[in-house]
Amino acid sequence: MQVYFRQRWQDDRLQFYLPNVTQFTLSNRFMNHIWKPTTYFLNGRRSKLHNITVPNQFLRLHSNGNIYMSKRLTVHARCPMRLSRYPMDSALCPLYVGSFGYTTKDIVYRWLKDAPAVDVDSGVMLSQFEIGEIEVKNITRMNRLGEISILSVYIHLNRAVGYFLLQTYVPSYLIVCLSWVSFWINRDAAPARVLLGATTILSLAAMGITIREGLPRVPYATALDVFHNLCMVYLMAALIEYAAVNYFTKLMPKEGGLEDDEDEEEEKAEEVSGPPPLKVVLADQEKERERETLLEDKSEVIDAEDPSISYTQDCPRLFWRCFIGNFEYRLKRVMAADPEAGNSVSNIDMVSRYAFPLTFIIINMLYWFLYLYNDSDDFFDTEYIVA
Questions:
Q1: Closest among 111, 43, 141 to 380, alpha carbons compared
Q2: Residue 265 and residue 271: Cα distance in Å, rounded?
Q3: Residue of 241, 257, 247, 244 lying closest to 196 (CA atoms)
Q4: N or C: which end of the chain has fewer CB within 10 A?
Q5: Distance between CA atoms of residues 164 and 167, nearest Å
């Protein structure tokens, strides 16, 4: 971060008296010839003074020996963070200021009382954080030299969740919902259902690798890891569900191939009761001939009418009934269809259509409640111990 670091101290040796002069500004060369408190940032990793176009610092001397020094610095400091609630976490970043070699016998640091200790520019914005409350303290610590005086600044940072909602949470929700489409696919369409399940799993796995690239390798699970693993469990469960459907509702006959349980029961019933009577077979053949005759008559009527009128009157109406799932229309379609070409639905699929979304919604409500409204955000102990 970039700061304007200002210090003020009293040096009676620099008192002066000049008529109509109470203060004057000194050049940078004069700074090397006066006493300074050797201030540094205790938890700073690296810091630098801006030197373009000239060293960005100045010194102002008052007649009573009061010295005011200001510098423009860029400071990189360590900020301990606990990422267990990432990306809904908060951070308390400290900055410690003290003397490099002097103890409290030589110098004591205090925040100015007649001005704000820390003034943040209103135009400062962070890409992933929102700057919250800023606290300042005066503390003392013991080291090998003795007791030292330290000024501390605590900056509360709240992570913005909007970016993660758009880039991680919403796509993950869509992938999970896409995996539930397999519950409406015919259980005999094994390639389609397996391919859909494998594709969603691979997509979520690739997304998980991407979102972890910018994170430190912490030894505990973050909130994002919990959500990602939850979605992965549901994708795996959707794929395993089809394996259960295929195992419990299908049997492998001796001749080879898959058969429905219901079809096998019908075959066993036929074997016990013997072949159907000739009367029933003739009746079925007669119904089939009547159906074919009806379809031929209907096709002749459609051919005799004007095609444009037929499409204008029938197609939109039939499309609308099909689109809204009209029960009467669907019933007529089922009655008119071939009874031997039905699309049987497994009971496991029917239960999964409601069980998967319902449980996923409940678990997500608990997830967001625990991570958003749980105020037990335990920060690291930010009291700096000087070695």
A1: 43
A2: 10
A3: 241
A4: C
A5: 5
- Taking only the tens place, the pLDDT of each residue in 252-283 is 454 444 445 545 555 555 555 555 554 444 44
| Contact present, 157 and 90 (Cβ < 8 Å) | yes
Contact at 8 Å (CB) between 319 and 216? no
Distances in whole angstroms, Cα of residue 341 to Cα of each of 114, 135, 335, 336: 88, 74, 12, 11
State both tokens at 211: 């979102």
Return phi, psi of residue 116, to 5°. -60, 135
Look at the pTM and tell me if it is higher than 0.70: no
The tens digit of pLDDT for each residue in 167-201 reads 999 999 999 999 999 999 888 888 899 999 999 99
Residue in 117, 97, 115 with CA at minimum distance from that of residue 107: 97
Quick one: tokens of 252?
Answer: 């492998």
Report yes or no: 189 and 230 within 8 Å, Cβ to Cβ: no
Structure tokens at 268: 């066993």
| Residue listed under structure tokens 């919403």 | 170
130 forms beta bridges with 158
Which 3-state string (H, E, C) describes the chain? CEEEEEEEEECHHHCCCECCECEEEECHHHHHHCCCCCEEECCEEEEEECCCCCCCEEEEEECCCEEEEEEEEEEEECCCCCHHHCCCCEEEEEEEEEECCCCCCCCCCCCCCCCCCCCCCCCCCCCCEEEEEEEEEEEEEEECCEEEEEEEEEEEEEECCHHHHHHHHHHHHHHHHHHHHHHHCCCCCHHHHHHHHHHHHHHHHHHHHHHCCCCCCCCCCCHHHHHHHHHHHHHHHHHHHHHHHHHHCEECCCCCCCEEHHHHHHHHHHHHHCCCCHHHHHHHHHHHHHHHHHHHHHHHHHHHCCHHHHHHHHHHHHHHHHHHCCHHHHHHHHHHCCHHHCCCCCHHHHHHHHHHHHHHHHHHHHHHHHHHCCCCCCCCCCCCCCC
| Structural domains of the chain, with CATH | 1-78 (2.70.170.10), 80-159 (2.70.170.10), 163-253+346-373 (1.20.58.390)
